Amino acid sequence: MRITSIITIIAVLAALAGCSTSRKHTAGASESAPAATVEPSAPQETVPETAPFGNAALAGKEEAESEAATHVWDFRDATTWLLGDISPERLAEPPHSSWYLEGYSSYNPDPEYLEQLRKMDISNLTVTVVFGTWCPDSRREVPRFMKLADLWGLPTDRIRFIGVDINKVAPLDEYDSLGIERVPTFIFFENNSEMGRIIEIPVSSLEQDSRDILEGKYEPIKF
């Protein structure tokens, strides 16, 4: 019993010595060390999760355009998709300008077919372009078609652009009536009556296929 009491007293004294040492060491360090200067932390930049044109990573930054030019985009990311009726101007803005402007500037339509198109009456012609910004074929063919249209003289206001998601669906009431199975799809109308469509890839070239559609002798690819 006495031995147990002695052991208990020793344990209590050891515990008190430890806490005391810790407190004394802490106090000494506080007295000898100069007070650290705490720099005020800079406020973090707030970036919204979703931004116009899917440019979430660059939203709110003044240097957005210059950063977008060097940014490697993953166009499978749904935040970058353009859906429904869109204006072609949006394709020339980040992030889509990275593929659109390059594809537009590098494409040179065959001058022979281009000249034939220029001689045709297109006063009642309209074209509906259904595409997905996530789709490599769309990112290749849409800028080329726009280059062709500009050189051809087909006014932009007679070209309708419809963006679809990865399931090829657009948030438009009348969209299902177009019967889209693959993208891009270029649908040619004369007086609102369909003349033909280029589906996914041209049979020959955009300019030759367009001429053949207007002449009524186009045979689309069979998938």
**Average pLDDT level:** 78
Helix/sheet category: alpha+beta
CATH topology of the largest domain: Glutaredoxin
Outline the biggest β-sheet: 5 strands, mixed
The CATH homologous superfamily of the largest domain corresponds to: Glutaredoxin
In percent, how much strand structure appears in the residues? 5-15%
Structural domain tally = 2
CATH architectural grouping of the largest domain: 3-Layer(aba) Sandwich
What Rg is obtained from the alpha carbons, in whole angstroms?
33 Å
End-to-end C-alpha gap:
96 Å
H/E element string?
Answer: HHEHHEHEEEH
Number of discrete helical segments: 6
What is the number of beta strands? 5
Description:
The N and C termini lie far apart (96 Å). Strands 1-3-2-4-5 form a 5-stranded mixed β-sheet, with helices on one face. With 223 residues, the chain is α+β, with helices and mostly antiparallel strands. It has 6 helices and 5 strands, in the order H-H-E-H-H-E-H-E-E-E-H. It folds into 2 domains: 1-31; 52-214, Glutaredoxin (3-Layer(aba) Sandwich), CATH 3.40.30. It has helices spanning 2-32, 64-70, 97-106, 111-118, 136-152, 206-214; strands at 84-86, 125-131, 159-163, 185-190, 193-199.
Task: Briefly characterize the structure.
This protein has 223 residues and is an alpha+beta fold.
Topology (SSEs and partners):
Layout: H1 2-32, H2 64-70, E1 84-86, H3 97-106, H4 111-118, E2 125-131, H5 136-152, E3 159-163, E4 185-190, E5 193-199, H6 206-214
Parallel strand pairs: 2-3
Antiparallel strand pairs: 1-3, 2-4, 4-5
Helix pairs in contact: 3-5, 4-6
